[in-house]
């Protein structure tokens, strides 16, 4: 957990309120070397 109850994707550095979304984003980024718009639309920062 980083910042006030926010979780960060370690690959693209976006923040999410939900840890599962941050993990999904990280896995997608690692696999595809790009971000998923379906996931990043939930990003807070």
Give a nutshell description of this structure.
It is built from two helices and two strands; from the N terminus they run E-E-H-H. By secondary structure, the protein is mainly α.
Global outline: globular
In whole angstroms, the N-to-C terminal distance is 14 Å
Number of separate domains: 1
The structure class reads mainly alpha
- Sequence of secondary-structure elements: EEHH
Strand content: 5-15%
Widest beta sheet: strand line-up? 1-2
Low-confidence stretches: none
- By DSSP, the count of extended strands is 2
SS field, number of helical segments: 2
C-alpha-based Rg, rounded: 9 Å
Helix content, binned percent? 40-55%
Average of the residue pLDDT scores = 93
Largest sheet: 2 strands, antiparallel
